[in-house]
Amino acid sequence: MGTALLQLVNNLGPVHFWGLLLAAIVLTVTGFHSAFAHLSRARILEDIPTSMVRSASQGYIELQGTSRTLDGPKIFSPLSHTPCTWWEIRVEENTGSVRRRWHQVRAAVSDELFALEDDSGRCIIDPDGAEVFPMITRRWYGDSPQPAATRTRRRFGGRYRYTEKRIHDGDPLYAIGDYRTRYISDQWDTDAEVAELLREWKRDQAGLLDRFDSNRDGQLDLAEWDAVRAEALKQVRRQQQELERQPGLHVLARATDGRPFLLGALPQPDLSRRLRRKAIGGLLTFFVAGSALTLMVTLRFGF
Questions:
Q1: pLDDT tens digit string along 12-34?
Q2: Rounded to whole angstroms, how far apart are CA atoms 218 and 129?
Q3: How does pLDDT run across 141-177, given as a tens digit for each residue?
Q4: First and final CA of the chain: distance in angstroms?
Q5: Is the dihedral of CA 245, 114, 59, 186 positive or negative?
Q6: Domain boundaries, the chain
């Protein structure tokens, strides 16, 4: 068998040999990276304790709860028009005649905000840049780039293949990312608000004079303008104090330091097992491709 393998490798032309060698190198590197990345994510999931929305500390945390839509326009998946909180789609065209060769013609992923809700409160999820593990993945076929909005969907055949992943309102939701509580006061510009209020008052000159023209000479002198500005500042600060009583807005988003941002429509233990299976698959790819690479180089060059 060894002689047959040696003869097979030596009989490969330079183009085929170097092509196979390059493919083995790529698979080896890809397998190692996949194993390391997925195992690292699984370890992070298992090591970080779960926090509650209301009592969570600022920074990189783990949350578990329920996926919820926000008030306002509903989110619909583009292919099946199903209401959801998150979606990802891919449309591929069969470019082969006998053997099916699928060429991607369209791909998109939702970046619309939704929420994670637990027993203590609600956190806004900004899914931009997240690695998402949905509960629902659907694949079907048709004859146009945009599937017809019908209930009948072919499971096989058709020139186009559609793949759609979704998370629905009410699905369990696991999330790990950068948690920040944002308050209205964080965006206050008192000077700008006072200036805007003064501009509003100036549009009603009669009312402004009635309130602040203390000597009734039909105009506002410097002392009276000081009283106008003091009253505007007092009103702005009173409004700010009322707004300060409102709770902050909790947001979970991608971490700026490059740590994984993960969303999963399944409990943390299930997600961890899925990541470990992917790590095992990457490790197997690494060993198989690495062995093939070593064998090819040894047989060809006699190392």
A1: 677 777 777 788 888 888 888 88
A2: 61
A3: 888 888 875 444 555 667 889 999 999 999 999 999 9
A4: 19
A5: negative
A6: 2-183+248-301, 188-244
